[in-house]
Design brief:
The protein has 9 helices and 3 strands. It folds into 2 domains: 192 residues, no CATH class; 56 residues, no CATH class. By secondary structure, the chain is mostly helical. It has a 3-stranded antiparallel beta sheet. Helices cover 55% and strands 4% of the residues. The longest helix has 28 residues. It is elongated.
Length: 271
């Protein structure tokens, strides 16, 4: 592990631990797995900009984190010299991408994040406007992100009291998985991104001179890494329970280690 990667590891670890401890000590975090709270604004959103899910960092960067990370990676990879534009670096990125897809999008059906949430006691719930009540529906409606309403799926609402049903005839909503252990996907992805980008800059730092395009690419990567570290801090302070943040961090480390395996196998076969 290079000096830069070790530094990134120390920074991410420190930010997650300090941010999580702060969130517990000062009660700043929102338990996003609690169905009674998750659809409400963060209690601090009016006084703390980054406690709002609608802040620019979250909307334009964190929610598109892997797209930004991918763009930064390929910008540095393409503009590098032939010696730094190695297949090994590409295998690390591709392996990390596969782990991201398995956890967030697909694992023989729902992604692993959703599977863990269900196995740990999560339920597919529907929040009805102007009431704290929750309607539990079959999990497949959450897995497929199907919009439901009393008109389109009357059987789901058959046992619900009249006071529970929304008044608007055109009302519909998409149920969400709540309760259970909701691993922090943001902490996971940001941890993985910081370590991956820092590692892939290592060969560039060994060069004596950079071309102008590569100089721009390196500084763009550094700027994004700093942005991701800041985002790790805001997520650690304002969102998810402590256990969910720590599990997201540990999972990010595991997936980063997994991204090194193909390179190690390739190196062994060439000996």
């Amino acid at each position: 592990m290079s000096t830069a990667t070790r530094l990134a590891f120390v920074l991410v670890s420190t930010i997650v631990l300090v941010g999580t401890a702060y969130s517990v000590a000062f009660h700043t975090y929102l338990d996003t797995s609690n169905p009674l709270l998750t659809h409400l604004p963060h209690p601090l959103s009016k006084t703390h900009r980054f406690a709002s899910k609608g802040n620019l960092l979250n909307v334009y960067f964190i929610k598109q984190a892997w797209a930004w990370t991918s763009g930064a990676f390929f910008l540095a990879w393409i503009t590098g010299t032939p010696s730094t534009r190695s297949f090994l670096r590409l295998t690390r990125y591709l392996t990390a991408t596969v782990t991201w897809l398995l956890f967030t999008a697909w694992f023989f059906g729902p992604g692993l994040f959703e599977r863990v949430l269900v196995l740990s006691g999560g339920e597919c719930v529907l929040s009805i406007p102007n009431t704290p009540e929750q309607l539990v529906v079959p999990a497949e409606f959450c897995h497929t992100r199907t919009s439901v309403s009393p008109h389109t799926h009357p059987a789901l609402f058959a046992s619900a009291p009249d006071s529970f049903l929304p008044g608007a005839s055109d009302w519909h909503a998409v149920p969400r998985l709540r309760k259970g252990h909701d691993i922090s996907g943001h902490i996971y992805l940001l941890t993985l991104s910081v370590l991956l980008l820092t590692q892939q800059l290592g060969p560039s730092f060994s060069l004596t001179r950079w071309s102008m395009p590569h100089t721009v690419a390196v500084y763009a990567n550094i700027a994004l890494i700093i942005t991701w570290l800041f985002a790790v801090g805001t997520t650690s302070v304002y969102f998810h329970s402590p256990g969910e943040k720590i599990s997201g961090y540990l999972l990010g480390l595991v997936c980063f280690v997994a991204s090194q395996v193909p390179g190690l196998l390739i190196a062994r076969t060439t000996l």
